[in-house]
Amino acid sequence: MKISKKALGILMLSLVFVLSACGADNSAKESKSEKHSGSSSHEEMEHSGSADVPAGLQESKNPKYKVGSQVVINASHMKGMKGADATVTGAYDTTAYAVSYTPTNGGQRVDHHKWVIQEEIKDAGDKTLNPGDQVILEASHMKGMKGATAEIDSAEKTTVYMVDYTSTTSGEKMKNHKWVTEDELSAKS
């Protein structure tokens, strides 16, 4: 049986569409199963990022964990983070906020995302924002975050850390993850 190039091309294109539809269905199922804090979902979290920090962010002069320190992450912002060994790559004094927002890309509402810092909020200035304040996010930790209108859930003056770590579930190496707070880390024993 001979198949023309055109028929083979159509068959291959159909196969691509079928497979991509299956992949989209699986990611939707995964999205529903990887919830965090109610309706918050962090599967699109940017695990690794640039070492660049927002303008105006001040390095901590006396952080509990200095750059290069070996620590353990006690937070579970995303799958594979809690209990992970990490290396501190940056320490900064600022105000960290938990925020709730609806992504600009039409994704599902994210509740209590931890953390967005003072310098990642449009026109925040130096004044600590209060729970209930409406802000525009300049952070891009997740798809659809930058430019989103958010509500401040909580505020905490603290030292925030950028860390490199290896996921405890996937083994994937995460570089320059932003942000974990001082109370979410412990010294590696």
UniProtKB/TrEMBL annotation:
Gene3D superfamilies: Domain of unknown function DUF1541. InterPro entries: DUF1541. Residues 1-23 form the signal peptide. This is YdhK family protein. Residues 27-61 are annotated as: Disordered. Residues 27-49 have a biased composition (Basic and acidic residues). It comes from the Bacteria. Keywords: Signal. The keyword rRNA-binding does not apply. The keyword Signal applies.
